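Usage example:
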Amino acid sequence: MAANTNLSANGGAPEITVKCGNLNWYRYRVFLWKPGDEKWPDGKSFKKIREGIFDTENNALDTFPIGMDAGDLDGYHLSWEFYIKMPGGGTGQYSVVVQVKQGDEDAMNPPYTAGGQVKNVKIVADSTELMV
Amino acid sequence: MKKTSLSLTLLGLLFALCAHSAMAQLTQAQRPNIPSNGNSLLAPATPAKRIAPLISSDTSEGARVKITSDMPLNDYSAYRSNDLFYVVIPQAEIPQGQSPVSGVGFADAKMERQGDDLILSFRLKQGVTASVNQKFNRLEVIFVSSESASAAVKNSVEDVAPASTEQRTSKQKRTRRAAANHSTPSLQDPLEGFQKGNDISLADIDLTVPESPAFTVLGVTPETVVRPTTPREFASSLLNGLDQNGNFQTGVAFDAVPFLVFFGNDTNLYDYKRSAMTRFLSRTQLSFATAKGVTDDDKSTRLALGLRMTLWDSGDPRLDRALQTCYKDETDKLFAAGGDFDDPIPLDPTERDEEISRREKIFADKTEPCDDTARKRNWNASSWIVGLAPSWISETGSTSNFRWNGGGFWTSVAYGFEQVQALKDNSQLIFHARYRNNEIVPDADTEGLFFSQDSLYFGSRLRVSPGKKASSILSFEGVFLRSRRDNNEYDNSSRYSLGLEQRLANNIWFALSLGGHSGREDGTNQTFVTTSFKWGFSKKESTTEQ
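Running the assembly step on the lines above writes:
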């Protein structure tokens, strides 16, 4: 599991930055999970807050807000998943970085990084607990 | 900008190394490669060997020159440079009272002293090879004409001193019994079948640039190839190729794209599309290999460096927008409500790992048709690829005395008629050129023997299948080969053909081919016409002379 994310209730709105490297096609999703047995209005414990693709038309860097005030996020979880494809198949390398920042500070310290070999396809996923 | 500058600097150093070695080859051919006496400052001075006057005698195969000394001659070395054969005897004096040396197969025999070493040189006549046998304080330089080469090898094997006391360095020595584990290049030799002139399959003519030119030029197919993916692995791979004395170890095989190893994490497809330099560096592959001598008793180490550069590739899957759209469409289905990936991957680590494993299989299955379609779409895409691989050899295996040992150059240009609507999906034109220098080739007529070959090869292939249904295929192929064996005269030969394949019905094709040869050694430069019917779908065409 990635490092816990320590937020300040009086700090700015937390932001997530997703960055990928190497010459792969990436599709990613980021979810926000309710604490304990709580549910979102649709009855699910999770909510998708971001989805994107990194390819020749979309630069491999995305920064977006969590969408809630920091003070309300205690006990929530943030999860992310990356679907990685080597164009045409074959073997190569991948690299993924997820940062959670509040202002200029890394709230999730250290940032999540993953890298290694991809043989045709690779899926990487992890999560962090948000603590205020 | 910084990363591309550093990569260019690394590539520039590599090219400088190659250019320096090429220049060294030119100068080395003009003077002997004198092995240095590295211990002269530390070791006690040893008296110079006294050499008796050389004695030359003719034999049934050619000639023999005897060199006798008052001390053991097991530190000699010998090598060939073009038509000159050198024998180097360290710490030796010029024989006193020497009369001119002559014999069948050589001329211009000379002796000179360079530093403390005695250099003997013999100018070989055409078709003559030379080798050296050593026994205690005697050397025999044996000159053999090409007609009796195989018989001479058999006789000289019987005369050999114990291998541990002998240095075998000349090319002739490579014609001894081959090591059982010697592997020949995986690339099809255009000479094979061509000079034999029969049953060459048009589709088997190899017009590609090898993936790892260093392996090809050494004639090895490594079982284990190190492919470093990080800078640390890259450095470790290089260090692991050296022994504790700083000498290259044999059996090293290394293949990498240096730009991606060092800067891959800072690169992505978005930048790749927009930067020609990023594309060039990402497509430049570096290979490196070392190999032992060709035969079991050859102590030399051979080394080759290879570069494979894709100057352009209109079929690059990394730039294929249709392919990326296909990936998106397939994952849209998976992520859609009710799809296999509708829900997020679980938070629990154990469940997460199991779910990831399940999804990877599905992800691979669903995107495979995208890759297959892209391959069919891009099979004839235009491209230009260049490969080059210089090589070096050290007769003793020491890093300090590597010398130039030839190499290879390849280039292939393919055109896929992208601007011609009727041809862009089903036609291709390829031009290929290849130059190999000092290539060690197995002798097709005598098992276990090898010879040195220089060759220049041009090939071209045009396949045109107008229209959507591809019911007719027109083809033209031509190859030109210029080669020589063991520095003899060059031979030229060529082959060309025109072909037509017409589909008569589903899975029934009629094939007509006409062409001819020229420049064949045996003088049988025939034209040919062949016809055939083929049942079932076959992508291969073949011609057989009638």
